[in-house]
């Protein structure tokens, strides 16, 4: 009867308290929290007192936001040993937790509170039991409920637990030792130590404890300063960052984690960082392999669309066409043409360069022999001459063409054996007046003559050809000007170069020059008058008159002039002309003829090769 009465009293006391705690307000939103209750179930805890603690736990659970990503709850009970009622990872629903608490059976032995704290620190709050890793900075809270004095030492082990980041609340009921509660609890003690003196105050204590545990949602208040996320905790808050970021030193702002900078990415070419991850990227012309780290060069030629005539070479920038040896790539970047080495190298040929496959050879004009160096041609070494050049420097020539004239004069000098004993050269320029640029006896080498020709300054103005002829006859071929005495029988040659009609009479002095034994040549360009050229030149006119339609085509006159100025080899002072019917003359004629045929055959072969190349190009275009 007495036991029945006690049960009725117990139900009367507990029912309003649990209901009141449940209805005290909305559930507590503390943010993520790992909460472990450490319940004293020693023999000193009377059955109805243990039932009070059971209901106390159930009431608190109903006020918490329980869930895997919110508050995780674990319960252990202890006496002389420690028993896990359920770990943090066990339940995510409040109903399952309440059922396990209601089925709880007291151990009813000693009071080893220090042992229970040790277990909570090493086991209950381990990741294996369901606690979240320390780097997630989820608060860890232990609530110790006891009714008496511990039978072991608690101060040292409680300090170790607090040092590991576990916040301890100590709750004493009736006979609990206040000193032990204070030794276990976290500071400040007035917020972490609770003492219930009588059962009729359990309702008020439950509300105070819930208020302490939940507190104010500081993340809901402005000014927390978290850049990414604010996480509420009992009485405080902390900041966290989104995946791929880490908290800065101010514990509020977030910094992107540069995984590429750690040097463990393994990318062959480039590592590209992204929040919380990275990916590998290859240089231009390469493709990423299946391992997503190494790179392979793209073989553009294997695509089959390069259109290269000879060979395709794959490069990082794409396909490039390459020609076989002895060929050059054309502007279209695909077709190839046989290389003309004469245009591509400094061949050094004095007269003409002829390409022959992968090589070339030098040719000399008809009547001149190739020297031992394979490049230069022999000169008029037997035909010594006193040569005076009369160059038209009138305004109609124009400066740019006058430069071509000087170049043409130097090409004439190139096939002469210039020396005091060989060929002597003098130069006269005329326009409205006449000027001796240099006389016959001034320079003794071809290099000196050519340099003086290039230094000649353009006179401009009129065209007094007759005045120039008079100057030549009276002065240029005098011994004072360097001409050799007539007794030596050195030929005297005058070459007149003009581009138009003379503004004075030429007939008197043209005739006088021939009477003086001067062999006269006339070279006309452009608007030169043929009748005047014939009157100036010696007979026959066909051998002594040359004409070019413009200054750019003068070079074809060189061969004619060479054959005229340097006539049959061997003519000099004291020598006689050889008969063309002599054996040596016939052999020489045969050699020249064969040389000319060889040159024509070579030119024909080159023309045939070019025609074949053009036919191939047309075939490829079709």
From TrEMBL:
One of its GO terms (cellular component) is extracellular region. Residues 1-19 form the signal peptide. GO terms for molecular function: calcium ion binding. Keywords: Coiled coil, Disulfide bond, EGF-like domain, Glycoprotein, Repeat, Secreted, Signal. The keyword Nucleotide-binding does not apply. Residues 34-213, 386-561 form the VWFA domain. It is found in: Secreted. Major component of the extracellular matrix of cartilage. Interacts with COMP. This is Matrilin-4. The lineage of its organism: Eukaryota, Metazoa, Chordata, Craniata, Vertebrata.
């Amino acid at each position: 009867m007495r036991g029945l009465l006690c049960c009725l009293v117990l139900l009367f006391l507990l029912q309003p308290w649990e209901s009141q705690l449940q209805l005290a307000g909305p559930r507590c939103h503390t943010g993520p929290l790992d909460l472990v209750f450490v319940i004293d179930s020693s023999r000193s805890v009377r059955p109805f007192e243990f039932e009070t603690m059971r209901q106390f736990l159930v009431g608190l659970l109903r006020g918490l936001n329980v869930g895997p990503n919110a508050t995780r709850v674990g319960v252990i009970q202890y006496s002389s040993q420690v028993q896990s009622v359920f770990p943090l990872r066990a339940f995510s629903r409040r109903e399952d937790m309440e059922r396990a608490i209601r089925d709880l059976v007291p151990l009813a032995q000693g009071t080893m509170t220090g042992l229970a704290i040790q277990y909570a620190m090493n086991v209950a709050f381990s990741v294996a039991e369901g606690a979240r890793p320390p780097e997630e900075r989820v608060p860890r809270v232990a609530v110790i409920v006891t009714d008496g004095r511990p039978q072991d030492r608690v101060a040292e082990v409680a300090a170790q637990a607090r040092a590991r980041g576990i916040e301890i609340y100590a709750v004493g009921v009736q006979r609990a030792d206040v000193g032990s509660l204070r030794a276990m609890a976290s500071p400040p003690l007035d917020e972490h130590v609770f003492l219930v003196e009588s059962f009729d105050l359990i309702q008020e204590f439950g509300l105070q404890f819930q208020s302490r545990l939940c507190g104010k949602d500081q993340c809901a208040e402005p000014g927390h300063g978290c850049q990414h996320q604010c996480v509420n905790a009992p009485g405080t808050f902390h900041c966290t960052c989104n995946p791929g970021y880490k908290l800065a030193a101010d514990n509020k702002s977030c910094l992107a984690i540069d995984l590429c900078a750690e040097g463990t990415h393994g990318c062959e070419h480039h590592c590209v960082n992204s929040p919380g991850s990275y990916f590998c990227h290859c240089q231009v012309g390469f493709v990423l392999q299946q391992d997503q780290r190494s790179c392979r060069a793209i073989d553009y030629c294997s695509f089959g669309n390069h259109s290269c005539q000879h060979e395709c070479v794959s490069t990082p920038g794409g396909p490039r066409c390459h020609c076989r040896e002895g060929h050059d790539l054309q502007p279209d970047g695909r077709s190839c043409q046989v290389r003309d080495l004469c245009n591509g190298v400094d061949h050094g040929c004095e007269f003409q360069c002829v390409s022959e496959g992968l090589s070339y050879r030098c040719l000399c004009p008809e009547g001149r022999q190739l020297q031992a160096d394979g490049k230069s041609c022999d000169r008029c070494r037997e035909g010594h001459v006193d040569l005076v050049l009369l160059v038209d420097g009138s305004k109609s020539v124009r400066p740019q063409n006058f430069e071509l004239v000087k170049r043409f004069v130097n090409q004439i000098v190139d096939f002469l054996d210039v020396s005091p004993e060989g060929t002597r050269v003098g130069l006269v320029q005329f326009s409205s007046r006449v000027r001796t640029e240099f006389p016959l006896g001034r320079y003794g080498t071809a290099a000196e003559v050519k340099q003086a020709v290039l230094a000649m300054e353009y006179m401009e103005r009129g065209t007094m050809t007759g005045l120039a002829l008079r100057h030549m006859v009276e002065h240029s071929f005098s011994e004072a000007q360097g001409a050799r005495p007539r007794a030596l029988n050195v030929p005297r040659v005058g070459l007149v170069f003009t581009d138009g009609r003379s503004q004075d009479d030429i007939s008197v002095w043209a005739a006088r020059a021939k009477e003086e034994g001067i062999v006269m040549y006339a070279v006309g360009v452009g608007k030169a008058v043929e009748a005047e050229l014939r009157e100036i030149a010696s007979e026959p006119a066909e051998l002594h008159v040359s004409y070019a339609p413009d200054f750019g085509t003068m070079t074809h006159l060189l061969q004619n002039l060479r054959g005229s100025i340097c006539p049959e080899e061997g003519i000099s002072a004291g020598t006689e002309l050889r008969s063309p019917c002599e054996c040596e003359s016939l052999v020489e004629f045969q050699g020249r003829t064969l040389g000319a045929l060889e040159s024509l055959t070579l030119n024909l072969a080159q023309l045939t090769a070019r025609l074949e190349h053009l036919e191939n190009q047309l075939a490829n275009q079709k």
